[in-house]
Amino acid sequence: MYSVGKIYIRTPPAPSTPPELPGASTPPELNKALLDHFFPGEPATFLDTILLPFRDCLPLSLDEVGRTLARSSATSAPGPDMTPNSVWKRVHRVAPQLIHDLLAPLVTFGSHPLTL
Predict the structure, then answer these.
(1) Coil, strand, or helix at residue 9?
(2) What is the pLDDT of residues 74-99, one digit of tens each?
(3) Is there a contact between 113 and 44 (Cβ–Cβ < 8 Å)?
(4) Using H for helix, E for strand and C for coil, what is the string for 58-105?
(5) What is the pairing mode between strands 7-9 and 2-4?
(6) What is the crossing angle of helices 62-71 and 96-109, to 10°?
(7) Which of the pair, 16 or 62, is modelled with greater confidence?
């Protein structure tokens, strides 16, 4: 902000720029750097067989997901992507069905991909 006489003129905000990461000066490089950071390692291999649901598996409930997240420490990060539980708790507050819909098939079919 600067003034001209008694009139104050507001300067426009600086344009938003993407974060700078080493070796990521273009959008595709930034995309690759973020994917490599949040999803390290080799891509998950697909199973050659069809997974069958467990017969004795109780369905996962929204309440169970909520209770589990409530008991977890907000500062810990359970997976290799190092996403803290505080992020998962915030996602659950905004869209509780989302985490349930992601986890329910994994519980039903007894699959736990390494990327999780």
Answers:
(1) strand
(2) 888 777 777 888 888 899 999 989 98
(3) yes
(4) CCCCHHHHHHHHHHCCCCCCCCCCCCCHHHHHHHHHHCHHHHHHHHHH
(5) antiparallel
(6) 100
(7) 62
Q: Which amino acid, residue 100?
A: H
Closest among 66, 64, 60, 59 to 95, alpha carbons compared:
66
Judged against a pLDDT cut of 60, whether residue 65 lies above it is answered with: yes
| 53, two tokens | 């649901």
User: Which structure tokens are listed for 7?
Assistant: 């009139």
pLDDT of residue 67: 92
Tally of helices (H runs) and strands (E runs) in the chain: 4, 2
% of residues, the chain, pLDDT over 70: 70
Which of 88, 86, 66 has the alpha carbon at shortest distance from 75? 86
| Domains in the chain: boundaries | 43-116
pLDDT of residue 88: 87
> What's the length of the chain?
116
d(CA 54, CA 111): 10
**21 DSSP 8-state letter:** B
